[in-house]
Amino acid sequence: MIEAGATRCAILSTDGGFRSTAAEVFRRPGRNLQVALELTVPFTQLGDEQLAQLRAADPELVVLDLEVDPVLGLKFAQFLADQSPHRRIMAVGPMLSSEQLLAALRAGISEYLPKPVASEAFGSALDAVLRRLRWSPHAGPAQPGELVAVFSPKGGSGSTTVATNLAIHLHRLTGKRTLLLDLDLELGEIALQLGVEPRFNFIDMVRNFHRMDADLLASFIEHHTSGVHVLSAPYHPERAELVSGEQIAKILNFLKQHYAYVVVDTSKSFSATTLATFERADRILLVTVADLPSLRNITRCLPLLKQVVGPAEDRVHLVLNRYQEEDPIGIADIEKTLDMKVYWTIANDYDAVVTSVNSGVPVILGGASDYARDLKGLGARIAGIGTGDEETSERTTSLVRPLTQLWKRALGQQAEVKA
């Protein structure tokens, strides 16, 4: 019996482990989904009986496992799409070539994930498909998310590493949709730190914003295996064309309507992009280290920063990175010099951070370290959840370098043709 209002789903897979993963994600709170049919036979054995079951179930969402026979599976996806143009199809299976991914797109597959599929990655892809079915997990108008801007007026202070790891932890801690946005448009390094090779970047979004909606946004976003969504800076500095503050404001407002958290890594200068981000930010993390050049730059930038944020100066929080108790310049000295309280400290854990950056695996995913411990505490404070000590160890297992998102590249090629 299908519950009233539930989205009818069908799973076609010979892999019992994957079927269990999919069913578990379907059952999570907030998703009104019901599995109307499970077929466990290979595509080569599908006959009249199975087709009759599919017609009777009439699923709105179909999940196909192409592992056994990708070629025949793509043909079957085309058949399903032709039978019901409003039906949405997800697929999993082996790593496909670019040509096969484009064929999958043409066959009507909305999302493709290489196996093995982590439940978080499957859940993110599922939500993207459900949005295309005009489904929302929340009744009533969506509340705008929280925008956290991470800024340092001096290079080498570690603000990009803070932004990257903070976004991941906010998502893992709260389970909410989180976007990591790289607005250091000339020399952004978010993609490098995540070990991803994005097909699109923020400048592509600016150029297409006049026709942007939730569906098109999904094609510009990179899905990291941690569950965080990523919109990177352009790889080539010459593509960092002039973007007005007005454009930035409109785009940030749009993104806040689609994400619970938008974590922005800003440039090190007071560009129009950075100032517009400050104006729209709910919280600004001012990252510094305990040395004279960094503190001097903070002192120089504070008057302008306070002018931009206006009377809401409590939105600006000082984060002391690479903190060591034996530093010649202590917390009391910093607070007296800047006339500003230190909001949070992050330990100096050079080996863990350098290993993380060089491997493309964010430090917060790489196991226990002092840096990860302090980042978790910062994320917990921002999210308003405990002290940060409650993070469970089973969610911090080591990850390998993320697989390249070839499916998103294929989507990008299609969007580029339409642009």
Report on this model:
By secondary structure, the chain is α/β, with parallel strands linked by helices. It folds into two domains: 133 residues, Response regulator (Rossmann fold); 250 residues, Rossmann fold (3-Layer(aba) Sandwich). The strands form two sheets. Strands 8-9-7-10-6-11-12-13 form an eight-stranded mixed sheet, sandwiched between helices. A five-stranded parallel sheet has the order 2-1-3-4-5, sandwiched between helices. Helix 3 runs parallel beside helix 4, helix 4 crosses helix 16 and helix 10 runs parallel beside helix 11. The C terminus is likely disordered.
* Number of H- or I-type helical stretches: 16
Summarize model confidence as the mean pLDDT.
81
Broad shape: elongated
The radius of gyration over CA amounts to 23 Å
> What topology, given as strand order, has the largest sheet?
8-9-7-10-6-11-12-13
Counted up, domains total 2
- Per the CATH scheme, the topology name of the largest domain is Rossmann fold
Portion in strands: 15-25%
Biggest sheet descriptor: 8 strands, mixed
Instruction: Tell me the series of helices and strands, N- to C-terminal.
Output: EHEHEHEHEHEHEHHHEEHEHEHEHEHHH
Measured between the Cα atoms of the first and last residue, the distance is: 44 Å
- What is the level 1 CATH name of the largest domain? Alpha Beta
